[in-house]
Amino acid sequence: MTHWVPDLEGRQGPRYRAIADALSDDIANGRLAPGTRLPTHRDLAYRLGVTVGTITRAYTEAEKRGLIGGEVGRGTFVQGQRHMPPSDPFSWTPRPEPSVVNMTVVTPEHPMSVPMMGATLAAIGASPNLGALLEYAPHAGLPAHRAAGAQWLTRQHRVATSADTVLLTTGAQNAMAVALAAVARPGDVVLTERLTNYGIKTLSAVEGYHLEGIAIDEHGVVPDSFDSACRRLAPKALYLVPTMHNPTASVMPQARRVEIAAIARRYGVMLVEDDVFGFLVHDAKPIQAIAPDVTVYVNSLSKSVSAGLRVGYVVAPPALVPRVEAVIRALQYSSPPLPPEVATRWITDGSADRIAEAQRGEAMARQQIARSILPASAVCGHASAQHLWLVLPEPWRRDDFIAEALRRGVKVTGGDVFAVGRASAPHAVRLGLCHPHSRDELARGLRTLADLLENPQTAMLSIV
């Protein structure tokens, strides 16, 4: 561990930020080399005469900048400064070899949006309409923002909509909360896939919905299981992710979508369709476009354009729009208008389309890397998804595999995280392919996992 102490003399602003700035300077001038282990929070706090909390904030700030990374049980290490070559917007400088490859989340980087953001904010700052963006917006969003959302969803997701049925939210998780609150009450039964997006599990727990999982196969929700659940449980809604299902990355065929919509209409059940990954597959028509009368559609720009904008959309049947708007008012009054203004400008000038196209290309490239390294028998999911489902062969058990992968420097998410209720979770893991900062880092993590799959005797290590 280095005895590094930052020089804070003459640095303005909060102490934690001054420490992060000093760390950045010392990395840039070569005083701290990549891979250097930094002092512990307590040790550095003592040397600087500040609180441990200040050091924690400083290290967190430095990690956000990509300067350092923490490793469980080992400490905090310098990663160096990342850069973005103009020829390849996704070609970040790899982290140093000792760092953990994190595949637990499906959060793509959006490096193309970084330079765009500065120019866009400058243009907004010079706009005579800036003042309007600092006031409360209408509950459903400003008309121009709703119109741009309708254009985006129609162009990139093939949604059947217009500005008057699009309502703005703060990201997809907020859109899910709004959609469900518009059609269900605490205690009501809400159906979802037996394995589902973790976000709906946490949302249902907080809001008091009775979440019930129904059977899925390689094509998504099984119609007979949905029909049976409707008859037995009288649910208010079915939440589902038909395109790039989370976690299995499957895509529901068109005929299955028509069948699911018909069952929902037969029993008066509202479909809450989560289509955040829909931009990755242009030939997958949303259920909303098939049955807009029984579908509340939710989406966001997080996977396609920029996660930090927190711009989400709800598309509701016309009769339900007032109810959705009332829920938005109750939960948050309205979405902050500045992020949707950025999104609207990018949608209008084509920037958002260029970023989404780059994301599609990167997703397919990373899938190709994964499928060239991992055994084909274990890989499930669509070949252009930002994640994949890895089915573990015998004798691997999910918890043993996760623990051994982490011991070797790779973090993955177990299938139990996505299981609804007491349903038995498969011995499988989800891999977020888009989160590692470079293709080389991804490949390194995948080779580690492939080695584990090819040497299952390691699974016996935890058995005594």
TrEMBL record:
Gene3D superfamilies listed in its UniProt record: Aspartate Aminotransferase, domain 1 (3.90.1150.10), Type I PLP-dependent aspartate aminotransferase-like (Major domain) (3.40.640.10), Winged helix-like DNA-binding domain superfamily/Winged helix DNA-binding domain (1.10.10.10)
Gene Ontology molecular-function annotations: DNA binding; DNA-binding transcription factor activity; pyridoxal phosphate binding; transaminase activity
SUPFAM superfamilies linked: PLP-dependent transferases, Winged helix' DNA-binding domain
PROSITE patterns: HTH_GNTR
InterPro entries given in the database record: Aminotransferase_I/II_large, HTH_trans_reg/aminotransferase, PyrdxlP-dep_Trfase, PyrdxlP-dep_Trfase_major, PyrdxlP-dep_Trfase_small, Tscrpt_reg_HTH_GntR, WH-like_DNA-bd_sf, WH_DNA-bd_sf
Keywords of this entry: Aminotransferase, DNA-binding, Pyridoxal phosphate, Transcription, Transcription regulation, Transferase
Pfam families: Aminotran_1_2 (PF00155), GntR (PF00392)
Domain HTH gntR-type: 13-81
UniProt KW Cytoplasm keyword: no
Annotated family: In the C-terminal section; belongs to the class-I pyridoxal-phosphate-dependent aminotransferase family.
PANTHER family: HTH-TYPE TRANSCRIPTIONAL REGULATORY PROTEIN GABR
Protein name in UniProt: PLP-dependent aminotransferase family protein
Lineage: Bacteria, Pseudomonadati, Pseudomonadota, Alphaproteobacteria, Rhodospirillales
